[in-house]
Amino acid sequence: MDAIIYSLPFLMNGLGVTLLVSAIVVALSLVIGVLLGIGLIYGPWPLRWLIRLLSDCIRGIPILVLIFVVYYGLPPLGLNLSSFWAAVLALTVFKSAHVIEYVRGAVTSIPRGQMEAGMAIGLIFPQRLRYVILPQAMRRFLPPWLNGVTDAVKGSALVSLLGVVDLMQAINQVIGRTYEPLPLYVLGALMYFAINYSLSTLSKVLERRYSYIRE
Amino acid sequence: MTATNLLQIDKLSKSFAENQVLKSIDLSVAAGEVVSVIGPSGSGKTTLLRCVNFLEVYDGGSIQIDGREVGYVDTSSRKRRGEVDLAGMRAETGMVFQSFNLFPHLTAEQNVMLGLRRVRKKPLKEAREIAQHWLSRVGLSHKADALPSELSGGQQQRVGIARAVAMDPKILLLDEITSALDPELVNEVLDVVRQLAVDGMTMLMVTHEIAFARDASHRIVFMADGLVSAQGKPDDLMAEVATNERLRNFLSRFSATAH
């Protein structure tokens, strides 16, 4: 038990890495996914075709395979990333493909008349997106996306496979020293749960904020 | 037709795939004139209206508002106007939709203000004053802060009208604006349109309210099969029933309500 308490700072470092990986992946995939999602809906056909192809391919590969493909595939191409950034890149690519689909689902659910009403008062395309379409799409985008954020946190545990000392890897290393797997895995599970429970609480607040049907 | 027409449509044609919806439409609307378009469904009325602010891209012919070609840089080259240019033209053309199409995330006042702020670039205070003026004109001052979901259909459509006219358009296009309303809510909307007509607003409206078209418009255009089949002052058009069989067939369905 003492050994576990002494290892707590080490575990907290791991937790920090898990949060950092998750935050970077979530932020990057949000930006990339939203841009490509809009490209998928409104872009010229070659762009739409390309995004559709990428999204389908990426979502059709297990994330674990994608991580190893990126890790072993980039150096021969002359791109040497640390295992941390290789893992972040693979997770970002994977999450982006999903964000694209959330965006597509949310935006295409807005009735066509909304775009037309925006046109009729003379808004240009970026204004129609900003003031008419996206605020409405936000409401439908948030629930699946926030769900995806918790997936990203859980999925970040896979970076441990490349030797990145995240929470998962830290736990495994402490177990290697103490031979007490059960309490440590339970402790790890509680930490992941604490993160995701806070996130889902936050998501309820956000969803209420963006429901414009007054309660 | 002379150059004094605000809206000038010549030989307008438009097809959806194999289906030629508009064959060759000639139609003009003078400044201050109220013109109603009637006709059986599928006759191309709504498509015609949507071509006027380029919500539909037309294939042939020409549409001019105040001497400027709608949608294309000029008639001969058929080069599309750029997004900013096109938006600028649409801002000069108000449109009220059959299904209201209010912005559900914005209050009534914000619905009216959006174009004033982002297109007309009015300062907040002035935009709000204009919005309040028009909301009061349509009898909805007390609903300025209501969301569309908190309004009745008739109230929503009146906000729709306020949103369109607040932009001070050269011409107002009304697309079957009472078709989606419960019968008891139709009149509150038509009263607003009547008032706008009295004020001299130029309007082109597609409507199934024959009685309303008769007493509120200067001219009625009867469309059938993608062509203007007959047009004239309301009473003159009604007199054409004797010679125009299509018009007679169409109007016979309204005989109970037209008088």
Question: Could you explain the architecture of this structure?
Answer:
The complex is a heterodimer of chains A (215) and B (259). With 215 residues, chain A is mostly helical. Helix content of chain A is 80%, strand content 0%. Chain A has nine helices and no strands. Chain A has helices spanning 2-6, 8-42, 45-59, 63-73, 83-108, 112-120, 125-155, 167-178, 181-209. In chain A, helix 2 runs antiparallel to helix 3, helix 2 packs across helix 5 (83-108) and helix 2 (8-42) packs antiparallel against helix 8 (167-178). The mean pLDDT of chain A is 92. Chain B has 259 residues and is α/β, with parallel strands linked by helices. Chain B has a domain at 1-92 and 208-259: 3-Layer(aba) Sandwich (Rossmann fold), CATH 3.40.50. A six-stranded mixed sheet of chain B has the order 6-7-8-3-9-10, with helices on both faces. Chain B has a four-stranded antiparallel sheet with strand order 2-1-4-5, covered by helices on one side. In chain B, a hairpin with a 2-residue loop joins strand 1 and strand 2 (19-30). Classes of the chains: A mainly alpha (215), B alpha/beta (259).
**Helix-strand makeup class of chain B:** alpha/beta
Number of strands of chain A: 0
Q: What fraction of the residues of chain A are assigned to beta strands by DSSP?
A: under 5%
Measured by DSSP, the beta-strand proportion of chain B falls in 15-25%
Globular, elongated, flat, extended or rod-shaped: what is the shape of chain A? flat
Question: How is this structure best summarized?
Answer:
Chain A contains nine helices and no strands.
Topology:
The complex is a heterodimer of chains A (215) and B (259).
Chain A: H1 2-6, H2 8-42, H3 45-59, H4 63-73, H5 83-108, H6 112-120, H7 125-155, H8 167-178, H9 181-209
Chain B: E1 5-16, E2 19-30, E3 34-38, H1 45-52, E4 60-65, E5 68-69, H2 83-91, E6 93-96, H3 108-118, H4 124-137, H5 153-165, E7 171-175, H6 183-198, E8 203-206, H7 210-216, E9 219-224, E10 227-232, H8 234-239, H9 245-252
Parallel strand pairs in B: 3-8, 3-9, 6-7, 7-8
Antiparallel strand pairs in B: 1-2, 1-4, 4-5, 9-10
Helix pairs in contact in B: 3-4, 3-5, 4-5, 5-6
